[in-house]
Amino acid sequence: MAVTAATAGRGIATERKSLSFIIAASSSGTLIEWYDFYLYGVLAAFFGQHFLPPEVKFADSFLYSLGVFWLGFVVRPIGAVIFGHLGDLVGRKFTFMLTLVLMGLATTLVGCLPTFAAIGWTAPVLLVACRLVQGLALGGEYGGAATYIAEHAPDGRRGLYTSWIQTTATMGIVAALLTIMAFRIGLGDEAFTAYGWRFPFLLSAVLVVLSGYIRIKLTESPLYARLKQQGKSSANPALESFGSGRNWGLILIALFGFTAPEGVVWYTSQFYALAYLLVVLKLPYIQVYLILTFALLLGAPFFVVFGALSDRIGRKPIMIAGFALAVITYWPVFTLLGVYKENPVILTILVWYMVILVTMVYGPIAAFLVEFFPARIRYTSMSLPYHIGNGVFGGGVPFIATLLAATFTGIPLVGLAYPIAVAALGVVVGGLGVREPTHEVKIWDEVGGQPAIGD
After folding, report:
1. HSE-up of 88 (CA within 13 Å, CB side)?
2. Lower CB density within 10 Å: C or N end of the chain?
3. What is the pTM of this model?
4. Could you tell me how many helices (H) and strands (E) the chain has, helices first?
5. The predicted structure's pLDDT at residue 17
6. Residue 118's pLDDT is what?
7. Short-list 30, 79, 176, CA closest to 386
8. What domains appear along the chain, each with residue ranges and CATH number?
9. What span, in angstroms and rounded, lies between the C-alpha atoms of 147 and 157?
10. By C-alpha distance, which of 86, 123, 117 is closest to 102?
């Protein structure tokens, strides 16, 4: 009896170690892809002066940079369809290895691009091309990594395990902020503005090689492998996903009820807050980077907290509560940022509160989307609403909010009208559109049940 128990104990330890490695390997690559993607957003103010004619005013060049930033988000749904189809057809692992390479290549090339002074209008064209490749790659990365982890996780703990990958987007911003700050302080503002902004992009090449080395050790998702073995995988995932009226109904509920409001909360609480502190309140960049970094680091554990909690009480109530709090509190919180702009401690607390809203709406979202769609078309179906919601709706927050503020100059904080409206839509559509508790869905039943330890 003692031998059996010891053997079982070793089996469980092996399973846990294996699952830990799977999460770490998947998340490391996703973190690097987010780091790559958000370098552009953090450095948006620098691109106008290098990739546009010198006579263009700063306000116009900054809006252009934000527009190109958004463009990378707008094409994410196209990447979701292309790579989602590939992931359901060929496999999860192959697809997110491919997206990692594409993202790393595009990001590294940004650091090598000639400026407008050197090659004229070809410079912004090449910059846009690199941004498009980044967007396409990220459109395929997230769905693959989230699905891969979810299809290893046992039923009943999917929210906990997938929440780890939800931390990577926020930690990608932290990595980008700290890397940029290190180069700016080390080189000085003049040298960084002239050429030092390239180094964070070039560093991506090293990070991608390291992550690729780790990821290549992974095997295919066991649920997907069993699906293929049983002949239940889709022969045409894109057609099956988008040729079904019922599936389109699920996609639209996922989009307007959850991913679009989640996307605007994510970008308002982090990126728009960053732009507001820098551009509107005109605080020193080191102070702003530190405020955001501390707030993000202090808030990051709550992705796991709310992911685990969603295994107990459900995904929907936590996310709806986050949307509702965003609707009620965004205006007063941004007002307080202006009132206490001389107090970094209070500013950090205010930004931290907004990060908590992000963890509420983003922590459970991967598990929710995985449970919302069947395994045979899961990668394709979940990727589209996720990337439209986060890319088009969420990624548009900095550009749309800045444009509203420039257009309606007499209305303070008018830029917040956009994210508040989309979050309110989530409360209504999410609240009414999903009745069944998705956390009770047993995705392993599609392939005959969860495998035993060592299966």
Report:
1. 27
2. N
3. 0.80
4. 23, 0
5. 46
6. 92
7. 79
8. 19-220+228-447 (1.20.1250.20)
9. 14
10. 86
